[in-house]
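Lines hold sequence, tokenised fold; shown next:
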Amino acid sequence: MVDLLKQPTLTPHKNTIREGMEQALGDFYRALGYSDNYSRGVGASNLLENTTGLGAFTSGQDAGESAGRGDWKGAAGNLAMAGLAAVPGGSEARGVAKTFEHAIGKNKLRVPLEDMRATYEAQILQGGMDFMRNKDSVWASEKGKVSTQANKIKQAGENGQPVRTVSSIMSPRSGDYSTMMANSILQQMHGAPLTKKAKAAFDADMAAKVPSWPGIDKVDENWVASAGSGRTQLAKIMEGAKHQSAGFPDIPSTRFAITEPGLLNQPTGSTGFNIATPDPFNITRDPAVPHETYNTQMGGQYFGSLDKPVPREIMFPDWSKTRPPGEPSPINDYTFERQLPAQDANQQWLDNIMKWWEQNP
């Protein structure tokens, strides 16, 4: 197996301007007295990209309400969010073409991709390709999946060779399962111009798929935390044309808000954004940095990143050769996620990656 540390394909990480601002925002919240985990979560969110003028207004309102309650820490934090909301962005300033068809939504987008910005209180975003940059954990999922992956890693490393895990892009809609997505949707329900008839129609559709659905006026974070696949149904059903036309939150725009901007236009299955050295013997359900969607994490350390991500068939050629020609992407994605294949990183593997880079500069 090739030791990636010795290969020129690995780029030492240097803090970007964004990461510097994230660190400053996290430090700001620590100075206000918030916990380290909360401060780190705020700093790691997509707040800088996803806060709008409306966000500035609502954050200013929140600051006033916090001050009225005597919550001076909260007031200061909300004022900081309001200030960050003034950062300009969007295609209107750059004069670029507008995108109304994208995998982030199943229908024509109500708002062009270039103009999407979150219009609700900033969520603390968790997971994503940078999750493995955490100090002690490199992957989070349900206990059964983490245990399965840990056993595969142990088996792959039995001969003493190092084992790495590689981040892989999922579908633009895969985040629908997360608590972040569901909570972001529900935050936008406050003040939404919905009729009783529209709410009743949505509740009927949800109840038919999710028996535990309490109703749009009764749902809260407790339901979100325990709903599992019900969270996916929440986004899927609400994205339906009749509910979108009735005034329910814009689902593609919400997906945009919880997605790392650099991943939006990457093909599903692209790999190599980040690489980690996992510790399959360190499985915890009480991590230093929690992930609200998943109950279990695998330990390990961030290892590095490829200069440029590569397609799945280039990173995992042995597994890809077992798939039938012309296999539909959804089936390929589903099978890959469940089989969790391993790949011997030998010289031929590396040569193929280098060749692909040369052909795709």
